[in-house]
Design goal:
The complex is a heterodimer of chains A (253) and B (194).
Chain A lengths: L2 H5 L2 H5 L5 H13 L1 H18 L9 H11 L14 H29 L8 H14 L4 H8 L4 E6 L5 E7 L4 E7 L8 E9 L2 E7 L9 E4 L4 E10 L12 E4 L3
Antiparallel strand pairs in A: 1-2, 2-3, 3-6, 4-5, 4-7, 7-8
Chain B lengths: L17 H8 L3 H23 L2 H18 L10 H22 L5 H8 L13 H11 L4 H13 L3 H8 L3 H19 L4
Helix pairs in contact in B: 1-2, 2-3, 2-4, 3-4, 6-9, 7-8, 7-9, 8-9
Classes of the chains: A alpha+beta (253), B mainly alpha (194).
Chain lengths: 253, 194
Amino acid sequence: MSLIELHQLSGAWAMNALDDNENKAFEQHLRECESCAAEAAELRETAARLGAVTEHAPPPALRARVLAVAAQTRQLPPATPPSETRASAVLAERRWLKRLGVLAAAASVLAAVALGTQAVRSNNELSREVDALRQVTAEYNQLAALMSSPGATTVSRSVEHGGTGMAVYAPSQNKVLFLAGGLPQLPADRSYQLWVVAADGPQSAGVLPTGGKLPPMVMEALAGTEKLALTVEPRGGSKGPTTAPLVVLPLAV
Amino acid sequence: MELVRPRTAESVPEQVGPELLEQVARGDQAAFGRLYDLMSGKVFGLIRRVLRDEAQSEEVFQEVMLEVWRKASRFDTALGSPSAWIMTIAHRRAVDRVRSAQAAGDRDVQAARLEVDTPFDNTSEQAASRLEQRQVRRCLSFLTSLQRESVLLAYYQGYTCPEVASLLRIPLGTVKTRMRDGLIRLRDCMGVSA
Protein backbone atom coordinates (compact mmCIF):
# COMPACT_ATOMS: atom_id res chain seq x y z
CA MET A 1 0.00 0.00 0.00
CA SER A 2 1.41 3.40 -0.89
CA LEU A 3 1.81 6.22 1.58
CA ILE A 4 -0.93 8.19 -0.11
CA GLU A 5 -3.29 5.28 0.29
CA LEU A 6 -2.27 4.84 3.92
CA HIS A 7 -2.91 8.49 4.64
CA GLN A 8 -6.39 8.22 3.24
CA LEU A 9 -7.34 5.51 5.70
CA SER A 10 -7.64 7.72 8.78
CA GLY A 11 -11.38 8.29 8.39
CA ALA A 12 -12.22 4.66 7.76
CA TRP A 13 -9.93 3.67 10.63
CA ALA A 14 -11.67 6.07 13.02
CA MET A 15 -14.97 4.41 12.15
CA ASN A 16 -13.72 0.82 12.34
CA ALA A 17 -14.44 0.35 8.65
CA LEU A 18 -11.11 -1.20 7.68
CA ASP A 19 -10.41 -4.89 7.35
CA ASP A 20 -7.88 -6.41 9.72
CA ASN A 21 -4.92 -6.12 7.38
CA GLU A 22 -5.52 -2.49 6.55
CA ASN A 23 -6.16 -1.78 10.18
CA LYS A 24 -2.81 -3.24 11.18
CA ALA A 25 -0.98 -1.45 8.40
CA PHE A 26 -2.56 1.84 9.35
CA GLU A 27 -1.87 1.48 13.07
CA GLN A 28 1.71 0.61 12.27
CA HIS A 29 1.88 3.73 10.17
CA LEU A 30 0.51 5.80 13.07
CA ARG A 31 3.48 4.81 15.20
CA GLU A 32 5.80 6.25 12.61
CA CYS A 33 3.95 9.35 11.49
CA GLU A 34 3.21 11.94 14.15
CA SER A 35 0.95 14.16 12.10
CA CYS A 36 -1.07 11.14 11.00
CA ALA A 37 -1.46 10.05 14.61
CA ALA A 38 -2.74 13.49 15.54
CA GLU A 39 -5.23 13.48 12.69
CA ALA A 40 -6.36 9.95 13.50
CA ALA A 41 -6.94 10.86 17.16
CA GLU A 42 -9.01 13.87 16.15
CA LEU A 43 -11.09 11.87 13.71
CA ARG A 44 -11.69 9.21 16.33
CA GLU A 45 -12.79 11.94 18.70
CA THR A 46 -15.11 13.25 15.98
CA ALA A 47 -16.57 9.80 15.37
CA ALA A 48 -17.17 9.43 19.10
CA ARG A 49 -19.28 12.60 18.96
CA LEU A 50 -21.43 10.94 16.32
CA GLY A 51 -21.83 8.06 18.71
CA ALA A 52 -22.69 10.17 21.68
CA VAL A 53 -25.85 11.68 20.24
CA THR A 54 -27.94 8.55 20.42
CA GLU A 55 -28.28 8.20 24.16
CA HIS A 56 -30.47 5.45 25.47
CA ALA A 57 -30.46 4.29 29.06
CA PRO A 58 -29.76 0.59 29.49
CA PRO A 59 -32.17 -1.47 31.61
CA PRO A 60 -31.54 -0.41 35.25
CA ALA A 61 -30.85 -3.99 36.36
CA LEU A 62 -27.67 -4.07 34.28
CA ARG A 63 -25.92 -1.59 36.52
CA ALA A 64 -25.69 -3.86 39.52
CA ARG A 65 -24.79 -6.79 37.31
CA VAL A 66 -21.96 -4.99 35.51
CA LEU A 67 -20.54 -3.63 38.77
CA ALA A 68 -20.74 -7.04 40.42
CA VAL A 69 -18.95 -8.76 37.54
CA ALA A 70 -16.35 -5.99 37.45
CA ALA A 71 -15.68 -6.48 41.14
CA GLN A 72 -14.73 -10.06 40.36
CA THR A 73 -12.79 -9.36 37.19
CA ARG A 74 -9.05 -8.88 37.21
CA GLN A 75 -7.87 -5.70 35.57
CA LEU A 76 -5.02 -5.59 33.10
CA PRO A 77 -1.77 -4.14 34.41
CA PRO A 78 -0.64 -0.91 32.76
CA ALA A 79 1.40 -1.32 29.61
CA THR A 80 5.07 -0.88 30.40
CA PRO A 81 7.78 -0.18 27.85
CA PRO A 82 8.77 -3.54 26.40
CA SER A 83 12.17 -4.87 27.26
CA GLU A 84 14.48 -5.82 24.43
CA THR A 85 13.27 -9.36 24.18
CA ARG A 86 13.55 -11.61 21.22
CA ALA A 87 9.92 -10.96 20.39
CA SER A 88 10.39 -7.22 20.32
CA ALA A 89 13.51 -7.61 18.24
CA VAL A 90 11.50 -9.60 15.73
CA LEU A 91 8.87 -6.90 15.82
CA ALA A 92 11.47 -4.23 15.23
CA GLU A 93 12.74 -6.18 12.29
CA ARG A 94 9.29 -6.46 10.85
CA ARG A 95 8.78 -2.73 11.30
CA TRP A 96 12.02 -2.18 9.50
CA LEU A 97 10.90 -4.37 6.62
CA LYS A 98 7.66 -2.46 6.41
CA ARG A 99 9.54 0.79 6.28
CA LEU A 100 11.53 -0.64 3.45
CA GLY A 101 8.32 -1.03 1.56
CA VAL A 102 7.52 2.59 2.30
CA LEU A 103 10.93 3.66 1.18
CA ALA A 104 10.54 1.67 -1.98
CA ALA A 105 7.21 3.37 -2.63
CA ALA A 106 8.76 6.77 -2.07
CA ALA A 107 11.65 5.84 -4.28
CA SER A 108 9.26 4.88 -7.03
CA VAL A 109 7.83 8.38 -6.82
CA LEU A 110 11.28 9.78 -7.28
CA ALA A 111 11.74 7.40 -10.15
CA ALA A 112 8.50 8.56 -11.70
CA VAL A 113 9.71 12.14 -11.47
CA ALA A 114 13.01 11.19 -12.98
CA LEU A 115 11.27 9.50 -15.85
CA GLY A 116 9.15 12.55 -16.52
CA THR A 117 5.86 10.97 -15.54
CA GLN A 118 5.21 13.61 -12.93
CA ALA A 119 2.03 14.62 -14.67
CA VAL A 120 0.16 11.63 -13.35
CA ARG A 121 0.40 12.97 -9.82
CA SER A 122 -0.60 16.43 -8.76
CA ASN A 123 2.00 18.59 -7.09
CA ASN A 124 -0.14 18.41 -4.04
CA GLU A 125 0.02 14.63 -3.86
CA LEU A 126 3.69 14.72 -4.54
CA SER A 127 4.45 17.16 -1.79
CA ARG A 128 2.30 15.16 0.59
CA GLU A 129 4.27 12.09 -0.29
CA VAL A 130 7.54 13.87 0.26
CA ASP A 131 6.30 15.18 3.62
CA ALA A 132 5.35 11.69 4.63
CA LEU A 133 8.67 10.40 3.47
CA ARG A 134 10.40 12.88 5.75
CA GLN A 135 8.44 11.69 8.74
CA VAL A 136 8.69 8.01 8.14
CA THR A 137 12.39 8.15 7.64
CA ALA A 138 13.11 10.18 10.74
CA GLU A 139 15.27 7.38 12.09
CA TYR A 140 16.63 6.52 8.70
CA ASN A 141 18.10 9.90 8.02
CA GLN A 142 20.90 8.55 5.99
CA LEU A 143 18.61 6.87 3.50
CA ALA A 144 16.26 9.81 3.36
CA ALA A 145 19.14 12.19 2.90
CA LEU A 146 20.38 10.08 0.05
CA MET A 147 17.09 9.90 -1.72
CA SER A 148 16.34 13.58 -1.38
CA SER A 149 19.83 14.90 -1.96
CA PRO A 150 20.21 17.31 -4.85
CA GLY A 151 20.74 15.52 -8.11
CA ALA A 152 19.78 12.13 -6.72
CA THR A 153 18.62 9.78 -9.42
CA THR A 154 16.77 6.53 -9.20
CA VAL A 155 16.88 3.62 -11.51
CA SER A 156 14.86 0.48 -11.27
CA ARG A 157 15.10 -2.64 -13.44
CA SER A 158 13.62 -6.10 -13.37
CA VAL A 159 16.00 -8.82 -12.42
CA GLU A 160 16.34 -11.79 -14.73
CA HIS A 161 14.46 -14.78 -13.29
CA GLY A 162 12.34 -12.51 -11.08
CA GLY A 163 12.38 -9.57 -8.72
CA THR A 164 13.38 -5.94 -9.00
CA GLY A 165 16.57 -4.10 -8.29
CA MET A 166 16.72 -0.41 -7.62
CA ALA A 167 19.52 2.04 -7.09
CA VAL A 168 19.49 5.59 -5.81
CA TYR A 169 22.60 7.47 -6.78
CA ALA A 170 23.33 10.56 -4.70
CA PRO A 171 26.26 12.32 -6.37
CA SER A 172 26.27 15.15 -3.84
CA GLN A 173 26.99 12.63 -1.08
CA ASN A 174 29.00 10.32 -3.22
CA LYS A 175 26.82 7.40 -2.20
CA VAL A 176 24.73 4.73 -3.84
CA LEU A 177 21.79 2.96 -2.24
CA PHE A 178 20.75 -0.45 -3.50
CA LEU A 179 17.41 -2.12 -2.81
CA ALA A 180 16.10 -5.39 -4.15
CA GLY A 181 12.81 -7.17 -3.73
CA GLY A 182 11.19 -10.35 -4.92
CA LEU A 183 14.42 -12.10 -5.79
CA PRO A 184 13.94 -15.85 -6.13
CA GLN A 185 15.48 -17.90 -3.39
CA LEU A 186 18.81 -19.43 -4.37
CA PRO A 187 20.03 -22.94 -3.64
CA ALA A 188 21.85 -23.12 -0.31
CA ASP A 189 25.25 -23.14 -1.97
CA ARG A 190 24.71 -19.88 -3.88
CA SER A 191 24.56 -16.20 -2.93
CA TYR A 192 23.58 -12.99 -4.63
CA GLN A 193 26.51 -10.63 -4.83
CA LEU A 194 26.42 -6.95 -5.66
CA TRP A 195 29.13 -5.23 -7.64
CA VAL A 196 30.06 -1.61 -8.07
CA VAL A 197 31.31 -1.32 -11.60
CA ALA A 198 33.74 1.43 -12.54
CA ALA A 199 35.77 1.97 -15.67
CA ASP A 200 38.54 -0.19 -14.26
CA GLY A 201 36.23 -3.11 -13.54
CA PRO A 202 33.86 -4.45 -10.89
CA GLN A 203 34.45 -4.31 -7.17
CA SER A 204 32.41 -6.35 -4.69
CA ALA A 205 29.87 -4.38 -2.67
CA GLY A 206 28.99 -7.42 -0.65
CA VAL A 207 26.86 -10.52 -0.57
CA LEU A 208 23.12 -10.07 -0.07
CA PRO A 209 21.75 -11.65 3.08
CA THR A 210 19.62 -14.69 2.39
CA GLY A 211 15.99 -15.18 3.17
CA GLY A 212 13.03 -12.83 3.13
CA LYS A 213 13.28 -9.21 2.14
CA LEU A 214 16.59 -7.48 1.93
CA PRO A 215 17.74 -4.44 3.82
CA PRO A 216 18.94 -1.54 1.70
CA MET A 217 22.67 -1.43 1.07
CA VAL A 218 24.45 1.90 1.05
CA MET A 219 27.88 2.15 -0.46
CA GLU A 220 30.43 4.74 -1.46
CA ALA A 221 30.32 5.70 -5.10
CA LEU A 222 33.97 5.39 -5.97
CA ALA A 223 35.45 7.69 -8.56
CA GLY A 224 34.29 6.65 -11.98
CA THR A 225 31.47 4.42 -10.72
CA GLU A 226 29.21 3.68 -13.65
CA LYS A 227 26.81 1.01 -12.59
CA LEU A 228 25.75 -1.63 -10.11
CA ALA A 229 25.47 -5.25 -11.13
CA LEU A 230 24.02 -8.27 -9.39
CA THR A 231 25.30 -11.77 -10.01
CA VAL A 232 24.85 -15.24 -8.56
CA GLU A 233 28.04 -16.53 -6.98
CA PRO A 234 29.07 -19.51 -4.89
CA ARG A 235 27.89 -19.12 -1.32
CA GLY A 236 29.84 -16.39 0.45
CA GLY A 237 30.73 -14.56 -2.75
CA SER A 238 33.60 -14.41 -5.21
CA LYS A 239 36.49 -12.07 -5.72
CA GLY A 240 35.20 -11.15 -9.11
CA PRO A 241 31.92 -11.91 -10.87
CA THR A 242 31.87 -15.44 -12.27
CA THR A 243 28.42 -15.35 -13.92
CA ALA A 244 26.58 -12.95 -16.19
CA PRO A 245 24.78 -10.19 -14.27
CA LEU A 246 21.06 -10.72 -13.60
CA VAL A 247 20.55 -6.99 -13.56
CA VAL A 248 22.65 -3.95 -14.32
CA LEU A 249 21.67 -0.60 -12.88
CA PRO A 250 23.33 2.26 -14.71
CA LEU A 251 24.00 5.24 -12.45
CA ALA A 252 23.25 8.39 -14.36
CA VAL A 253 26.10 10.84 -14.03
CA MET B 1 -21.41 -1.39 49.20
CA GLU B 2 -23.14 1.91 48.75
CA LEU B 3 -22.00 3.39 45.50
CA VAL B 4 -21.72 7.10 45.02
CA ARG B 5 -24.47 8.30 42.74
CA PRO B 6 -23.83 10.99 40.17
CA ARG B 7 -25.43 14.35 40.11
CA THR B 8 -28.99 14.40 38.93
CA ALA B 9 -29.95 14.57 35.29
CA GLU B 10 -30.85 18.27 35.49
CA SER B 11 -27.30 19.35 36.17
CA VAL B 12 -24.81 20.21 33.48
CA PRO B 13 -23.64 17.00 31.81
CA GLU B 14 -20.47 15.90 33.50
CA GLN B 15 -17.63 14.50 31.42
CA VAL B 16 -15.51 11.52 32.26
CA GLY B 17 -12.15 13.03 33.09
CA PRO B 18 -8.80 11.28 32.90
CA GLU B 19 -8.66 11.30 36.74
CA LEU B 20 -11.83 9.25 36.96
CA LEU B 21 -10.38 6.69 34.56
CA GLU B 22 -7.18 6.63 36.62
CA GLN B 23 -9.19 5.84 39.72
CA VAL B 24 -10.93 3.06 37.83
CA ALA B 25 -7.55 1.74 36.69
CA ARG B 26 -6.54 1.46 40.34
CA GLY B 27 -9.51 -0.79 41.00
CA ASP B 28 -11.76 1.84 42.56
CA GLN B 29 -15.22 0.34 42.17
CA ALA B 30 -17.05 3.46 43.29
CA ALA B 31 -15.25 5.37 40.55
CA PHE B 32 -16.33 2.72 38.07
CA GLY B 33 -19.90 3.22 39.27
CA ARG B 34 -19.61 6.94 38.55
CA LEU B 35 -18.16 6.22 35.14
CA TYR B 36 -21.04 3.85 34.49
CA ASP B 37 -23.56 6.52 35.36
CA LEU B 38 -21.88 9.06 33.14
CA MET B 39 -21.37 6.85 30.11
CA SER B 40 -23.90 4.03 30.14
CA GLY B 41 -26.59 5.96 28.23
CA LYS B 42 -24.22 6.94 25.46
CA VAL B 43 -22.59 3.54 25.25
CA PHE B 44 -25.88 1.66 25.22
CA GLY B 45 -27.44 4.16 22.81
CA LEU B 46 -24.65 3.70 20.29
CA ILE B 47 -24.62 -0.09 20.56
CA ARG B 48 -28.38 -0.24 20.18
CA ARG B 49 -28.23 2.12 17.24
CA VAL B 50 -25.72 -0.13 15.46
CA LEU B 51 -27.19 -3.50 16.45
CA ARG B 52 -30.96 -2.78 16.60
CA ASP B 53 -31.51 -5.90 18.60
CA GLU B 54 -32.28 -5.25 22.26
CA ALA B 55 -31.02 -8.55 23.68
CA GLN B 56 -27.79 -8.46 21.71
CA SER B 57 -27.29 -4.83 22.62
CA GLU B 58 -27.52 -5.65 26.30
CA GLU B 59 -24.96 -8.39 25.91
CA VAL B 60 -22.52 -6.25 24.00
CA PHE B 61 -23.08 -3.36 26.40
CA GLN B 62 -21.98 -5.50 29.33
CA GLU B 63 -18.93 -6.66 27.42
CA VAL B 64 -18.00 -3.08 26.65
CA MET B 65 -18.35 -1.87 30.23
CA LEU B 66 -16.22 -4.77 31.44
CA GLU B 67 -13.61 -4.05 28.82
CA VAL B 68 -13.47 -0.47 30.07
CA TRP B 69 -12.96 -1.78 33.59
CA ARG B 70 -10.29 -4.28 32.56
CA LYS B 71 -8.38 -1.98 30.27
CA ALA B 72 -8.66 1.31 32.15
CA SER B 73 -4.93 1.19 32.88
CA ARG B 74 -4.21 1.11 29.16
CA PHE B 75 -5.98 4.37 28.42
CA ASP B 76 -3.56 6.89 27.00
CA THR B 77 -4.42 10.59 26.91
CA ALA B 78 -2.38 10.87 23.72
CA LEU B 79 -5.11 8.89 21.99
CA GLY B 80 -7.89 11.31 22.85
CA SER B 81 -10.43 11.89 25.58
CA PRO B 82 -11.63 9.18 27.96
CA SER B 83 -15.15 9.34 26.56
CA ALA B 84 -13.90 8.94 22.98
CA TRP B 85 -11.84 5.97 24.13
CA ILE B 86 -14.91 4.39 25.71
CA MET B 87 -17.09 5.13 22.68
CA THR B 88 -14.46 3.62 20.42
CA ILE B 89 -14.53 0.39 22.42
CA ALA B 90 -18.32 0.40 22.22
CA HIS B 91 -18.33 1.02 18.49
CA ARG B 92 -15.67 -1.61 17.84
CA ARG B 93 -17.57 -4.27 19.80
CA ALA B 94 -20.85 -3.35 18.16
CA VAL B 95 -19.51 -3.55 14.62
CA ASP B 96 -17.71 -6.79 15.41
CA ARG B 97 -21.05 -8.21 16.47
CA VAL B 98 -22.76 -6.87 13.37
CA ARG B 99 -20.12 -8.45 11.18
CA SER B 100 -20.36 -11.83 12.80
CA ALA B 101 -24.14 -11.62 12.41
CA GLN B 102 -23.59 -10.62 8.82
CA ALA B 103 -21.59 -13.76 8.29
CA ALA B 104 -24.85 -15.49 9.10
CA GLY B 105 -26.39 -13.51 6.25
CA ASP B 106 -29.05 -11.53 8.02
CA ARG B 107 -28.42 -7.95 7.10
CA ASP B 108 -30.83 -5.90 5.11
CA VAL B 109 -28.78 -3.61 2.98
CA GLN B 110 -31.62 -1.68 1.37
CA ALA B 111 -33.24 -0.90 4.67
CA ALA B 112 -29.92 0.38 5.92
CA ARG B 113 -29.63 2.80 3.08
CA LEU B 114 -33.11 4.21 3.68
CA GLU B 115 -32.27 4.90 7.27
CA VAL B 116 -29.17 6.85 6.44
CA ASP B 117 -31.13 9.98 5.74
CA THR B 118 -32.79 10.04 9.11
CA PRO B 119 -30.19 8.91 11.58
CA PHE B 120 -31.63 10.67 14.61
CA ASP B 121 -35.36 10.57 14.11
CA ASN B 122 -36.00 7.53 16.18
CA THR B 123 -38.13 8.92 18.97
CA SER B 124 -37.34 6.06 21.30
CA GLU B 125 -33.83 7.39 21.61
CA GLN B 126 -33.62 10.00 24.27
CA ALA B 127 -31.41 12.85 23.36
CA ALA B 128 -30.01 13.86 26.70
CA SER B 129 -28.14 16.57 24.99
CA ARG B 130 -30.38 18.08 22.34
CA LEU B 131 -27.80 20.74 21.81
CA GLU B 132 -25.12 18.24 20.98
CA GLN B 133 -27.49 16.44 18.66
CA ARG B 134 -28.41 19.65 16.87
CA GLN B 135 -24.76 20.45 16.40
CA VAL B 136 -24.01 17.06 14.90
CA ARG B 137 -27.02 17.31 12.60
CA ARG B 138 -26.06 20.80 11.51
CA CYS B 139 -22.48 19.77 10.84
CA LEU B 140 -23.61 16.70 8.90
CA SER B 141 -25.60 19.00 6.65
CA PHE B 142 -22.36 20.65 5.51
CA LEU B 143 -21.07 17.40 4.08
CA THR B 144 -21.53 16.41 0.46
CA SER B 145 -24.07 13.66 0.11
CA LEU B 146 -21.37 11.09 -0.67
CA GLN B 147 -19.37 12.13 2.37
CA ARG B 148 -22.45 12.01 4.56
CA GLU B 149 -23.65 8.66 3.33
CA SER B 150 -20.20 7.12 3.62
CA VAL B 151 -19.79 8.37 7.18
CA LEU B 152 -23.26 7.38 8.31
CA LEU B 153 -23.17 3.93 6.73
CA ALA B 154 -19.80 3.18 8.25
CA TYR B 155 -20.47 4.58 11.66
CA TYR B 156 -24.09 3.76 12.39
CA GLN B 157 -24.48 0.64 10.29
CA GLY B 158 -21.01 -0.74 10.89
CA TYR B 159 -20.37 -1.21 7.18
CA THR B 160 -16.86 -1.85 5.92
CA CYS B 161 -15.37 0.23 3.12
CA PRO B 162 -16.07 -2.39 0.43
CA GLU B 163 -19.69 -2.64 1.61
CA VAL B 164 -20.15 1.10 1.47
CA ALA B 165 -18.54 1.16 -1.98
CA SER B 166 -20.89 -1.46 -3.34
CA LEU B 167 -23.93 0.16 -1.76
CA LEU B 168 -23.12 3.62 -3.11
CA ARG B 169 -21.71 2.26 -6.37
CA ILE B 170 -18.49 4.21 -6.08
CA PRO B 171 -14.88 2.99 -6.19
CA LEU B 172 -13.35 1.72 -2.96
CA GLY B 173 -10.65 4.38 -2.97
CA THR B 174 -13.30 7.07 -3.28
CA VAL B 175 -15.14 5.70 -0.26
CA LYS B 176 -12.01 5.92 1.85
CA THR B 177 -11.27 9.48 0.85
CA ARG B 178 -14.92 10.50 1.36
CA MET B 179 -14.86 9.05 4.86
CA ARG B 180 -11.74 10.99 5.65
CA ASP B 181 -12.86 14.24 4.03
CA GLY B 182 -16.24 13.88 5.70
CA LEU B 183 -14.84 13.35 9.17
CA ILE B 184 -12.36 16.18 8.69
CA ARG B 185 -15.19 18.50 7.78
CA LEU B 186 -17.19 17.33 10.79
CA ARG B 187 -14.15 17.78 13.01
CA ASP B 188 -13.69 21.35 11.84
CA CYS B 189 -17.38 22.12 12.17
CA MET B 190 -17.59 20.69 15.70
CA GLY B 191 -14.32 22.23 16.76
CA VAL B 192 -12.94 18.88 17.89
CA SER B 193 -9.37 18.71 19.08
CA ALA B 194 -7.72 15.61 20.35
